[in-house]
Amino acid sequence: MTGVQTCALPILSLMLNYYLYKNNATTDLALLNEIKRDFIEIEESKEKLLTGMVKESSEEKQKFNRTPNVYRLAELLGAVEEYQIFYKLYSKYTHPSAYYLLSSNTEKESDELRFVFLIQSAKYVKEIELKIKSICDIF
To answer: Fewer CB atoms inside 10 A, N or C side of the chain?
Structure first.
């Protein structure tokens, strides 16, 4: 389990919390709309890169609400302290940071860091499992 993989888990946990407890829309529909909007934005970016032309943002995209960014989700859900602590660590592995690009593999892949990623992954997987069970009414 790497920082990149571990980083996705708290973000998913925050998103599920947001849609389950703070949003009136059904979770599956809200996430589907998020995916549709992302797809439109990816297509627009590809077109801009390939043609060099900047086209006005599509009206289609405006129909789909955007989930707040991760920091805003943490604010809305009272998880700012946890976000700030782990964001600093995860971002070193998620983004092409100088640390990640220039440090030795021994340092980046130490047993201590692997343990932190493993423990955090287990915590978030359990939270996500409970949220999914509550969505699906699985016992």
So the answer is: C
